[in-house]
Amino acid sequence: MSTPSLPDVRPGRLSADACATRFAQATTPPMTPSQALLEAERCLYCFDAPCATACPTGIDIPSFIRRIAEGNERGAARQILEVNPLGGLCARVCPTEDLCEKVCVRNTQTGVPVAIGRLQRHATDALMASSRPQVFTRAAPTGKRVAVVGAGPAGLACAHTLARHGHDVTVFDAHAKPGGLNEYGLATYKVADNFAQREVQWLLDIGGITLQPDWVLATAAQLTTLQYDFDAVFLGVGLADTHRLGVPGEDLGGVQDAVAFIATLRQAADKATVPVGRRVVVIGGGMTAVDAAVQSKLQGAESVTLVYRRGQASMSASQDEQDWALKHGVVIQHWLAPTELQGNTEGHVTAVRFARQAVTNGKLAPTGDTVELPADTVLKAIGQTLGNAWLADTGLSLTDGRIAADDNGQTNLPGVWVGGDCRAGGLDLTVEAVAHGHCAALAIHQALS
User: Fold this and answer.
1) What is the pLDDT of residues 299-337, one digit of tens each?
2) CATH number assigned to the domain covering 145-240+386-448
3) What is the CATH number that goes with domain 33-128?
4) What angle in degrees, to the nearest 10, is found between the helix axes of 116-128 and 73-81?
């Protein structure tokens, strides 16, 4: 292969207006009332509905859809938020095509499921836009105090549920703004119009919740202090670190974690000011990889290639996500594993070399062929890890590098519960994190009662 041209990474590939228009056009539009009514009438309102069973938070899906069909959007929203206090956000980012909609009876009959996710968004958006968005009343104060570490989906769901039951909750978080990955880790086009913060404000309006931003849990002594100062502790600390590629050249300029790239974009008022390469290579096969790849294209990158080490069927990104990437001009290549990142004399990445892979005797192995892709920017999206060294000193039991817990989220430490991505055995989905937080809150409430 000929020597790649000099790296080309810069902001302003598009004008601010053009970039804003691209991102706006990529945002999924809400249903109109008429569209929602027609879609709701497609539901068969099944008894013992498989869609409800498939929902990690256990939303009674037929019941909320029936309320939409009856014109009772407020009642539909309450039905959703009763068990999923982040129902609006989950409606936007939950892979419904692989969960509730996949098992919808309409899907098995005709191949076209009821649009459950969009109906859920319609109901919760209608409530948020109403003059009385609060549908819950806080119980009488119990005098009990609970510490929630992490203001992501698990922590917020836990805090809201506890506050509804009358407990006083302090939410500690390392960031300046609450929301966790909802605020910092999702594509802008999925959570437009500052929705993550508007939903947080709705959660806080229940009362009894105090936010403590810019607070990092970094030592076992801090956890011990929380156990002493509060009646219960919930850990929703997420996954602090990202996996490394473990290949030469990984520390070259122009190489960064996709999560960090997405966070920078999410917090930028003008997306056009965020630098991006002319030739972008994204390594990974999940939703984060798709989010990073599509947004690079929306910013004006000339070529964006998403590379995954296995076949299409093994990608954790749903088929809808993969189709979304292809629709926006992202090239997806499979069966390629990175072996080296090449750079110029100034220490900036110029290309990525891959080894072609195949499954031999049930194991993934290189075939001997190599592929080289020029790159000005390389975004790593190969998964996250707990990465908190202090955990080893706490006495918490770990399984596969994450915190072990029972079905209610209770750890081996008295008075300490856990949920979200940091909990062992999960699916790493926003909706599951919410379910963890809600379930743990009920268990904490029972314990404190």
Assistant:
1) 999 999 999 999 999 999 999 999 999 999 999 999 999
2) 3.50.50.60
3) 1.10.1060.10
4) 110
